[in-house]
Amino acid sequence: MKKTIFSLLLASLCCTSACGSDDNGTEVSPPTPDPSEEPSTPSGPEDVTAFVRGADISWYTEMKADGKNFYNKAGEARECPVLMKEIGMNAVRLRVWVKPQNKGCNYSDAADVTAKAKAAKEAGLNVMIDFHFSDWWADPSRQDMPADWVGLDLTALKAKVAEHVNTTLLAIKQTGVDVAWIQIGNETRNGMMHPTGQLWNESGDLPGGWQNFVALYKAGYDAAKAVYPQAYVMPHLNHAYEDNDWWVKRFKAAGAAFDMIALSHYPQADDDSQTWTQLNQSAVTRIKQLAQTYGVPVMVSEFGVEQSNVTLGAYIASDFMTKVKALGNTVCAGVFYWEPEVYGNWKPASYNAYGWGPYTMGAFASDGKPTAILDAWQP
Prior knowledge:
The protein is an alpha/beta fold. It has helices at residues 2-17, 60-65, 80-86, 110-122, 154-173, 209-227, 245-253, 276-294, 310-327; strands at 52-56, 70-71, 77-78, 91-96, 126-131, 181-184, 200-201, 204-205, 232-234, 236-237, 261-265, 298-303, 332-338.
């Protein structure tokens, strides 16, 4: 049934694209799903070496507390991890902040992520844990030191990193969850935990920057391996379409170990000078090059498309998923959609203090049901 729906969407898009550019197609409402379709029953997780069809659903506990519910295509309410499994996912990614209460947020701390990891396992999903090493968002625009760690020297910070990773992962392990993948840092192109782990500023490379950053990373890597020796532990960079070989080369030369390389890919937002078609193809090329050069798989741990045009978004997502699957699991380990469950202009309360708007790349409709964007995550 789902493949038939997606085929109809592709046919609609082809008609639309004939009248304009691919990046600006007219939205076509997706066909109404068959309400008689029976929901699937959660089963055990797939082998972690299978291609990962995942989603980062870290916001779902906060959304639920705000009164947001999640429904399958038949309109039946589901817990978010159960729904992810039902629509074809085999894994979830969950971020963890050090003390988000310092930023007015009561979610994504160790307790919250432990509860979500347990719920994911019970739904039959594998788990990735994404350590930000900050009290809030860590990405190329900010890599803020956790407030309680400010002023500590490198030796003390390494101990804090190891302790944070160790205690968080042990709490998760005690619930019976076997974490499959672990990110040490989030989009750490310019290092993490600034200023100590910062790589450069407007004047160029900082003295000792790479050494400090890798020392902090290694403290996290070693702590992760001590709890989950079989887990794939990795760094994470934004912009999958860029040539990231130079970065990984310097990272490795500074003494870093890694079992995978994680990348983010947002084909409608990463580079306005290129079309999504070009960005998808560039990302696929770069993923293949990295995997071949360093002998480890690449995980696309963040992916998203604009939810304002479901038909176009579904086409972009399908195009990318088809291309990376063709590379094979030893080249591209899988793709995680970033916060697909967001709908109805929802945003976390902590955004209000910064004047931020809602996230626009969720993949659910205004009625709380998954859209055709996620059809590409079916087995």
